[in-house]
Structures are given as C-alpha cells and as structure tokens.
Write a structure and sequence with these properties.
By secondary structure, this protein is α/β, with parallel strands linked by helices. 46% of the residues lie in helices and 16% in strands. Helix 8 runs parallel beside helix 9 and helix 8 crosses helix 13. It is globular, with a radius of gyration of 21 Å.
Length: 364
Amino acid sequence: MEKILLAAPVLGKSGGIAVWSKAFMANFPNEEFQIVPVDTTKLLKGFNKSFVKRAYYGLKLMFDVLKRTKKALDDNPEIKIMHTTTSGDIGTLRDYYMVKLCHKRGVKCIMHCRYGCIPEDFRDKGFKGKLLRKTMHLYDNVWVLDCRSLNALKEDAVMKDKVFLTPNSIPVPSTCELKPKAYKSVAYIAHLIPTKGLYELVEAVAKTNHAMELLLIGPGEESIVNKIKTLSGDKYGKSIKVLGRMPNEEAMKILEKTDIMALPTYYPWEGFPISILEAMSRGKLVLSCPRAAIPDMLTSIDGSRCGILVKEKSSEDILAALDWIVNNKPECDAMCQKAYEKVKSAYDTPMVYELYRKLYRNLL
C-alpha cells in the first residue's frame, strides 16, 4: 500500500476545502493508498482581522504546517506523494516551501487548487503572480477545478503537460424522480455574505410579481440579516425567510421540497460549489453566475445549458431570469433532467476518486 501525505484542513468546521477534505478522508478507498493527514485549518481569529493580523497568523500557520509535515515525513519515510490543497493568496508561500521540503526527500508533489481566480493570479505582473508561477512550476502535478483554469495554465510552456482537471464530486443517487415543477420556491444554501449574490437575490424576489418563496439557509451576521429585512420589505418573514445555520441533512430536506436552488455568486475565490452539485443530483433547477467552475457544471452532456446563468451583481437579471423560468416551465423541466444526467456522468464520487487514483499512479 502506497502512502500519500495530504496537507488539507481535515479538522476544519466550515469552508469548501474543509468539506472536501472531510469527505475525502472518510470515503476515499484505502485498499491501494493510505492517506497520512497534516491539518492546515486556518486560525480563524486572525483571518477575520486586518491584513497585518492575517499575514501574522498566516505565517504562524505556515511554519506550524511545515513543522508537522517534516515530522510526518520522518515518521513515514515510505511516503511517495505529497498532496496539498490550496486557496491561493498568502497560502501560495506555504505551497512553495512545502514542495521544496518534499522534493529534498524525493517525494512527488501535487498542488490541488481549490479556488477559481487562477487565470488572473497566474497572469498577475506583481509579486503574487511571480510567486504563483514559480511555485506551480516546481510541482509535479497541478490539479484545477474548472476548464477556464485548465486552459489558462496550459498556455504556459512549463505547465502544459502537468496540469489536470479534477472536479469536485458527491455521491449521486442512482435514480432521481423528476416531476414537472411549479417553480414557485427558491432555496439559497450558503453563508449569508453579500458576495454570494445574496442581496441581489433578495431584491429580485422582493420585486417579482409571481407568488414565489425564498428560503435563506446559512449563518450570517446580524447586520446582514437586517439588510435582508430592509430589502425584503413587507415580504420578510412571509415569502422571504432567513432560516439561519442548520445541519447539511436538514438543509437537504428543505432543498428536496423546493424547485430552484439560487446561488448568484461573485465571491472572488469561488471554486466549485458543492451546493450546486447537490441541487443537480436532486433534479432541481440551478440559478447561478458564470464564475469559476459553474459554467462547466451547468453545461449538459450535449453541450446545452442545464441551468440558468445570470449576470453578476444584477438583481434585474435575476428578476428577468425568474420571470423566464415561471413562463417556460417545460424547458426548465428539461434542464433539470439534463442536470441530473450531467452530475451522474461527470461528478459521481466513485468516478472522480478513480481519476485521483489514476493521477497518483502516474506519479509513482
């Protein structure tokens, strides 16, 4: 059995990378590979503050991760591969020192990029871009979530043969009951933060003339909830409801009862929202923005759209999309069917994990 060192936030309580890491540790088949984890969970008290504080805690975490990585390598000299997850930014410095440390011991390295602004960062002319290019050039493999990032990195002579598309995944039900929908209920499942398109969505539903319910699921600060109340007007608590944080199982029960999952995100580091996969696997219509991997996800097997894409930061575009949905229900039902077929064929966990294993084998 081959050993792989995984540097990831395996003890994290929130965030897309933490969700992926926990699922990977729990479900990745271990008959061929044994995963040796090194936790990289952020010190959240520092990352909520000023740049100086974030830099301080980022460096503190980096040295701690490097120390624990060295110990893991000392305790497991048979480790052949180091697989690190990254969200870029200040984490790139850690990625640089991780690959240098591992290569000294003959360990092959994978940089698993878990964010969506890679093309912009890679082409950046300043320090951030120079550091990212230098770091990626050192890695044996670079894994990305979306075709846009893949194509951008393949333009680089050093990167073209070592960058690979590795999408997120979920266990997809073998069947999905797809009934005609009324398209009157909308679920938003994410942290309640403005850059997820939250305010634009609330504003659009508040303005629609259709009898439509919006359920907002996720944690949020009091100031944000107050803003939602203002934007909702007399619909707040009636057709627009803030349900707050809840366990994923409970959120999925609510999603099962709705027709549309809306995430009109323009979050700068958006990568590959799992909530979209969960909605697709349940035959729901997805409304989102063309950011990171989302256009890939909402492109069906035949190349047509299997979801609704709207302009970023535009409540008017969301409002127009909701109007179109209500007036074109058969077309939307067809999109839901295609969405289920896409998630089943491209993002089912066993299929994606086999891709991981293949890439691991190629490095050995």
